[in-house]
Design a protein that fits this description.
Layout (H helix, E strand, L loop, with lengths): L53 E4 L8 E3 L2 E8 L2 E8 L5 E8 L18 E3 L2 E5 L4 E6 L5 E6 H4 L24 E3 L2 E4 L9 E5 L5 E5 L10 E3 L6 E5 L3 E6 L5 E6 L12 E3 L2 E6 L2 E11 L2 E14 L6 E3 L2 E6 L4 E6 L5 E7 L5 E6 L2 E6 L3 E6 L6 E7 L10 E3 L2 E5 L3 E6 L3
Antiparallel strand pairs: 1-32, 2-3, 3-4, 4-5, 6-7, 7-8, 8-9, 10-11, 11-12, 12-13, 14-15, 15-16, 16-17, 18-19, 19-20, 20-21, 22-23, 23-24, 24-25, 26-27, 27-28, 28-29, 30-31, 31-32
Length: 419
């Protein structure tokens, strides 16, 4: 497949990832936008879910699954070891696993012991980023380690913060999912030695480029072209930025000082707007413009009705669907104006992953309940509500063909949904 991952509004600007229709090869799907283009789901949803096709022990953590070529890739932790796993998509049986010791523990025990990043599949390679900063490039066929970096050992530890934490490393561990762009794998590493964004050669693992001296973010970046300028768009620990695609110089920046620098939500790009959200702040649309070679970013609108914390919204029919943490409701906002189109009844849970699949949105909450919602800019219509995980989940839902992959605290469930 090609190696350029973009947000859905850019489908007419660049060629999209040519992944098979039934694959979900990375964070938030084939195009990194929360859309499942190959979903093959029922027109009428039954009241109760089917029994899982299979259930597999993965280990602790909220790494979301990546699905490609009949395999499922995911990470987990068992006692003191992190695990990079490859499972058979039909049976859930282990194809291979790579284990290594990991001593990192978040200062906040409620953050979990990870790992939390979703693997990224790129043809015959898969990239996995552990909680403590170990980045692996593995052969998808047999799990051979092609190269790896221990970012904590190599790049962090230069300076301590006021609380004794590393000044460049996210306090609760790495959570950003690797982004493959051409022959480079981009990971938010952080700091002066590696940059807030770091480009590694996808074949050799060599450091190709680094940008900005900021602390890195939990959020996963995207490549997009607002204002017709191809760029890397992503959070650092303190701001949303756009970097020139060719030279990685800073094009624009919008300050976003979150408590504990908890920048978690991935940027959403729609036309020339970049949606900035997180930590209970009002969702903001930043309009990126270009004039005579200069790129600027200014606030287009803000929505006090949509204050998210962890949930990255999705785009449909010129609208934005997100989750308001204060009211526990889904909120639909017109992207042109920021005007609220509707709010849903209460949808409980502290975290929700949202996947757009045709004319429905699949909303999985942290309590393990899946809400199937009719997508419409006019009103909220719930089609089904299924309990799909016993212990709840903070991992992102994956949708590949007619299969739903749900990761709870320790287990991965595969549901096959009849047409």
């Amino acid at each position: 497949m090609t190696r350029l991952f973009l947000s859905s509004p850019l489908a007419l600007t660049f060629a999209l990832t040519l992944a098979p229709a039934a694959d979900w090869p990375q964070w938030r799907g084939p195009n990194r936008d929360g859309v499942a283009p190959g979903a093959d789901l029922p027109a009428k949803w039954p009241a109760e879910p089917p029994a899982p096709k299979w259930k597999a022990f993965v280990g602790e953590g909220y790494s979301g699954p990546a699905v490609a070529g009949g395999k499922v890739f995911i990470m987990g932790r068992v006692k003191g070891d992190e695990r990079c796993l490859c499972l058979d998509a039909e049976t859930g049986k282990d194809r291979w696993k790579v284990e290594y010791p990991e001593t990192f523990q978040a200062p906040d025990p409620t953050a979990g012991r990870g790992p939390n990043a979703t693997p990224t599949v790129d043809g015959d390679r898969v990239y996995m980023f552990g909680l403590g900063g170990v980045l692996h490039c593995l052969d998808t066929a047999g799990g051979k380690v092609l190269w790896k970096h221990d970012c904590r050992a190599e790049y962090w530890g230069v300076r301590k913060g006021l609380l004794g934490d590393d000044a460049w490393f996210p306090p609760c561990g790495a959570a950003a999912s690797p982004l493959v762009d051409g022959d480079v794998v981009i990971v938010p590493v952080g700091g002066k030695k590696a940059g807030a964004f770091t480009g590694f050669d996808r074949k050799t693992g060599g450091l190709v480029w680094k940008a900005l001296d900021d602390r890195s973010s939990y959020a996963s970046p995207v490549v997009a072209a607002p204002a017709g300028v191809k760029q890397l768009v992503g959070f650092t620990g303190t701001r949303m930025v756009g970097l020139g695609h060719a030279d990685h110089d800073l094009l624009w920046a919008v300050p976003f000082k979150a408590r504990f620098e908890q920048t978690v939500i991935s940027p959403v790009v729609w036309r020339d707007l970049v949606i900035v959200a997180g930590e209970g702040k009002a969702t903001t649309a930043v309009r990126v413009t270009e004039s005579h070679g200069k790129v600027t970013a200014d606030t287009a609108w803000t929505s006090e009705d949509l204050k998210s914390y962890l949930t990255t919204p999705v785009v449909f029919a010129d609208h934005l669907l997100g989750y308001d943490t204060r009211t526990n409701r889904l909120v639909c906002v017109a992207l042109e104006t920021g005007v609220t189109a509707w709010t849903s009844p209460r949808v409980p849970g502290k975290y929700h992953s949202i996947v757009l699949a045709g004319d429905v949105a699949l909303v999985l909450n942290s309590e393990g309940t899946l809400f199937v919602v009719k997508v419409s800019p006019k009103e909220y219509t719930e089609l089904a509500k299924w309990k799909v995980a016993e212990k709840g989940t903070w991992a992102h839902l994956a949708v590949a063909g007619n299969r739903l992959y749900v990761k709870d605290k320790e287990y991965l469930y595969c549901y096959e949904v009849a047409k």
